[in-house]
Amino acid sequence: MSSTIESPRAAAPRRKGANWEKWGWIYMRVSGVLLVVLIFGHLFTNLMVGDGISAIDFGFVGGKLSQPFWQWWDVAMLWLALIHGANGMRTLVNDYVRSETARKVLNGALFAVAAVLIILGTLVVFTFDPCPAGASADLLPSFCGAA
User: DSSP string spanning 127-147?
Assistant: First the structure.
């Protein structure tokens, strides 16, 4: 009984459509570099500039999230980190889960959780108001002033 083994250099059959694994791999490299810049910029601004860590309180966060630059900075960090993490988990699921059904369920759950967290996080960043109009004065932080 004889069997032949194809040459490892033999061309694999080409599939039609996008190569999602390749684009996922590229995304992980690009998002990783961008996340390093965003995270270290975030840490430098919060911990080194001004009064340092002792200045971080509700007022500091409220003031920071009232500026569009920092809103977009935080949203970019949120989106990149959540998609990066979900893509990494998807890779682990695809590598280690043998059952096709379990793989689909876990990947679907990863997608759903990442999507919900991205939506909620984005809403928080863009709708955060430390001094809402019409709120009772005893519920407002001290820096809001009289309503």
Answer: H--SS-TT--TTTS-GGG---
Helix (H, G, I), strand (E, B) or coil at 49: coil
Predicted TM-score (pTM) of this structure: 0.79
- Tokens linked to 101: 């059904």
Structure-model confidence comparison of residues 9 and 90, the more confident one: 90
3-class SS letters over 101-116: HHHHHHHHHHHHHHHH
102 close to 52: Cβ distance less than 8 angstroms: no
Architecture of domain 25-130 in this structure = Up-down Bundle (1.20)
For 6, residues 6+ apart whose C-beta sits below 8 A from its C-beta are: none
C-alpha to C-alpha distance for 132 and 34, rounded to whole angstroms? 34
SS3 content of the chain, % helix, strand, coil (to 5): 65, 0, 35
